Amino acid sequence: MDASVVAVSRSPTHSFAKPNVARIRLLAGLGIEGDVHAGETVKHRSRVQVDPTQPNLRQVHLIHTELFEELAKKGFSVAQGELGENLNTRGLDLLALPVGTRLHLGACAVVELTGLRNPCVQIDRFQKGLMAAVLDRDGAGQLVRKAGVMGIVLTGGEVRPGDRIAVTLPLGPHRRLERV
User: So which domain of life are we looking at (predicted)?
Assistant: First the structure.
């Protein structure tokens, strides 16, 4: 199956969910035009409190739509944008990709993966029990965070639902994504 963009979302405010839009414009080194998390330095409120000069490694939040199907089997109803993500994908195991993977989106945009989203208590405020549902343990007992991946914009451009996604892996050795 070819990897593709299913939905795109943005919000100018620190709201939990982000409304779906027809297209988004990615800005190199900044993030998504019109999104509250765009910028060279951190914009997530908890990270700003710690150190507002940190580089923004969370300019773009991506979630695979297959997660929503998994959550539906557990009794949750989650739609694109409702977990605060900017892009929803299909046909791509985002969580298995290494740090530094480049996702080529649409005609020219490129996002480089920086790490995993660390789910927070807001997810349980959205739907009770959802935070536990987006966390798991692997065979070795290690915590698995399934609430998406984060990235930075290397090359700007417009991205729309239906756009294909091409993947370029970094040179080895590969490092697993960790929370950012």
Answer: Bacteria
The answer, yes or no, to whether residue 37 has pLDDT greater than 80, is yes
CA distance 125 to 155: 35
pTM score, whole prediction? 0.95
Distance CA 116, CA 2 (A): 23
Per residue in 15-31, pLDDT (tens digit) is: 999 999 999 999 999 99
Q: What is the domain partition of the chain in residue ranges?
A: 4-168
Fold of the 4-168 domain = M1 Pyruvate Kinase; Domain 3 (2.40.33)
Per DSSP bridges, beta strands 102-105 and 165-168 are antiparallel
